[in-house]
Design a protein that fits this description.
about 80 residues, mainly alpha, about 75% helix
């Protein structure tokens, strides 16, 4: 299990400038990015601290993060 955070700039290093631009100019994108950041930090906290969370609940969090990442990716490439 990896304890590396999945920050957007790390996930899409070639789109780092566009991520920053959209965060400041597109309210919908900024909201999605904030949701992703919050969810990602929660997942990282659980992984790093070894917090006791049921496997199904933890998998649901990771699926939510992936869905947000997919939506963000679509916007970045749209």
């Amino acid at each position: 299990m990896s304890h590396t955070p999945h920050e957007l700039a790390e996930e899409f290093p070639d789109l780092k400038d566009k991520i920053h631009e959209l965060k400041t100019s597109n309210a919908h994108f900024a909201k999605l990015a904030d949701e992703y950041h919050t969810l990602n930090r929660e997942i990282h906290r659980i992984e790093a601290a070894g917090v006791n969370v049921g496997d199904e609940a933890f998998e649901d969090l990771k699926k939510q993060r992936l869905a947000l990442k997919d939506t963000i990716f679509e916007i970045l490439n749209g």
